[in-house]
Amino acid sequence: MPSSRPDRIRKLLADLVAFDTVSDRSNLPLIAHIESYLASLGVRFERIVDETGQKASLWVTIGPEDRPGLVLSGHTDVVPVVGQNWSHDPFKLVERDGRLYGRGTTDMKGFVAVCLAMVPEMLEAKLKTPIHLAISYDEEIGCVGVRPMLGEVAKKRIKPLGCFVGEPTQMQVIIGHKGKHGVRASFRGLARHSSIAPDGVNAIEYAAELITEIRRRAVKLASNGARDDLYDVPHTTLLTSIVHGGAALNIVPDHCTVEFECRGIGITESKQVTDAIIAWARAELEPAMKTKHPECGIDFEEILDYPALDTAADAAIVTLAKSLAGRNDHAKVAFGTEAGLFVSMAGVPSVVIGPGSIAQAHTPDEFVEMAELMKCAGFVEKLIAHCTKD
């Protein structure tokens, strides 16, 4: 392993980017690589495997195990590259003009690489407060993979003092993010030849009524709903994202699926909003469909759910994060993270702070600046120093 800090970070990031960990495939090769690295340093870790046996997270402890510690948390999965116009292989790290290009460099293998690169310094520091690494999977499809790990953390006799989730914030301290609830509505209509359309039940037209109601409520939330000006979008948002339906121009469509989401500023607001929409559809749309034919109707299923984060600005974890980052400002973000789950599932106070910009996440030619990674390393260095104090 190269000895200088920048070289360690580059090498580890190149290694991590080389593993294709798009969420629809296994992350076990990457996890095994990290385990091998940690084992070579004599670091203990716990692997938490999912029900399929194809995904795993890691809980790592450096320092005393009989004291509450601080967590550095990051996910290993990345979004797909299919259909994106990359100028080079997205799974090969390329450095140009101080930028490191590759899928996941910003979101969020850069943060994970920094944390791993700083492990030797953690080991040398004789920590009095332990540092934990929480390395998860399937964050991109609804913060799925961190949940089994947090279930284990919640059972531990000694709970962490706090958590830093390293999503890209350009090292700004983020004390809140919106929650999200996603729903799929499947409309069951009645197919007929389009020449006798009134005899059928048009699933697409009923779906259109739902979409119109979602839009109406979204406008109302934007104009009259609760506001929090720490967010760039200071109100709860609601939208239809995906619609599929119909078979042919001359057939009354007997099926249509609609996927919609709410991102709420309140801890439980997202589900409250979508639940109200479902209740409206049950009362207003489904009876009309069943009047035409009793087997027609709507099936609703939850497809994604994670809570909001709302950490008090004067909380100890916020004060510590600002001290380590060398800045006094804080903000909230619209995108979701695993931080809300650390709070709700394990009772661990959390903030979001990490290298890179969310503007680069999920884009072709995704990159993180080396300067950002070094700022993050400085943050971890100060964390190590903090954890050596009595």
Automatic annotation (TrEMBL):
The keyword Amino-acid biosynthesis applies. The keyword Metal-binding applies. GO terms for biological process: L-arginine biosynthetic process. One of its GO terms (molecular function) is metal ion binding. Its main location: cytoplasm. This is Acetylornithine deacetylase. It comes from the Bacteria. It is found in: Cytoplasm. PANTHER family: ACETYLORNITHINE DEACETYLASE (PTHR43808), N-ACETYL-L-CITRULLINE DEACETYLASE (PTHR43808:SF31). It holds the Pfam family Peptidase_M20. Its cofactor is Zn(2+). Residues 175-287 form the Peptidase M20 dimerisation domain. It comes from Bradyrhizobium centrolobii. Belongs to the peptidase M20A family. ArgE subfamily. GO terms for cellular component: cytoplasm. Keywords: Amino-acid biosynthesis, Arginine biosynthesis, Cobalt, Cytoplasm, Hydrolase, Metal-binding, Zinc.
